[in-house]
Amino acid sequence: MQLFSLLFVASAATLAVALVPAALEDRSIGSSCTTPVQCPTPPILLNLTTQQDGKGTCQKTSSCTTQGFNLAGYCPHDPDGVQCCVKKTCSTKSGSGICLNTSDGCKQGAFVSGACPGDSSIKCCVDGAKPPPPTHCTGPDIVAAAETQKGIDYVFGGGGCKGKSDGGYDCSGLTQYSVCTACHYTIPRTAQTQYHSSLGKHLPRAEAQAGDMLFWATDGDCKNRVAHVGIFVRKGIMVNAAHTGTKVREQSIWTKDKKSGESICPDAVR
User: Fold this and answer.
1) How far apart are CA 134 and CA 112, in angstroms?
2) DSSP letter at 255?
3) What DSSP element (H or E) covers 11?
4) C-beta neighbour count of 125 within 10 angstroms
5) If you compute the radius of gyration of the chain from its CA atoms, what whole number of angstroms results?
6) Of 131, 115, 135, 134, which Cα lies nearest the Cα of 123?
7) CA torsion sign, 265 to 227 to 200 to 34?
8) DSSP state, 5?
């Protein structure tokens, strides 16, 4: 009898543990959330005086793609697949629209910059608007822009279109600077949003050419956990801002780092 009791308790405990993630997700969906201007900076890094973008509701990311923009880290317990969905209208010279993540696309029109909060990964989707004319730049132009910054320190959160900040660059700050300088348009600021941006074209990594971007993700999760980006220079070589204690440099392209748990993603982005 005692054995059966123990087995029942153990089974009940296992079932309870299995139900916790689903319970947390269900409890988060529909909850209110407020996001800061400095998306996608996590709340722990925000200055207390930061202004707010606006209030939203916690939804599954798949249900917010045409209603507003998603930001991770602002829902109770932050379960996988649930993010803060902020619905915000915007007004531009091309007309009115709604602020969306550029990675979700603007199916009925085109994205217009400068009318939405946050970085360039969130833009105003205006129905019927014409996309901006293509710029003429080459992959080697992007590499050349990055190479001019060699020798500058790695600084977490550093750099962007205007050059280095706080004395240096991080990986995505360098890539954003290089594209801004060479092509005169702005790509998203983080490695995660750069990998999923509609501004880029995915292709097999084996087809990468000079100026294409290579990405790495924690535990190989290139959908949700992209953590590093570098610029392809030539076979086996990239230029990047690698990590604290290094400088912007050329180095060998690596596939997996046991210490960080990062693995290279299968696609390059052009």
Assistant:
1) 14
2) S
3) helix 2-28
4) 24
5) 21
6) 115
7) positive
8) H
Q: Per-residue pLDDT for the chain (270 aa), expressed as one digit of tens each? A: 444 444 444 444 444 444 444 444 455 788 888 776 433 333 333 333 333 456 888 888 778 877 788 887 788 776 677 888 888 889 888 788 889 888 778 877 888 888 887 777 888 898 876 655 556 789 999 999 999 999 999 999 999 999 999 999 999 999 999 999 999 888 999 999 999 998 899 999 999 999 999 999 999 999 999 999 999 999 999 999 999 999 999 999 999 998 889 999 999 999
Upper half-sphere CA count for residue 81 (Cβ side, 13 Å): 9
Strand partners, 52: 36
55's CB contacts (< 8 A; 6+ apart) are: 32, 33, 34, 86
Torsion of CA 56, 62, 68, 69, to 10 degrees: 80
> Among candidates 227, 208, 231, 229, which has minimal Cα distance to 219?
227
Instruction: Measure Cα distances from 4 to 8, 13, 15, 42, 60 in Å.
Output: 6, 14, 16, 47, 41
Do 99 and 124 form a contact (C-beta atoms < 8 A)?
A: yes
| H or E stretch covering 250 | strand 249-252
Cβ neighbours around 270 below 10 Å, total: 16
Q: What is the pTM of this model?
A: 0.56
Tell me how far the alpha carbon of residue 262 is from its chain's centroid.
Answer: 16
Task: Give DSSP secondary structure letters for 66-124.
Answer: TTSEEESS-STT--TTEEEEE--EEEETTEEEEEEEGGG--TTEEEETTSSSSSTTEEE
> Can you read off the two tokens belonging to residue 18?
């299995």
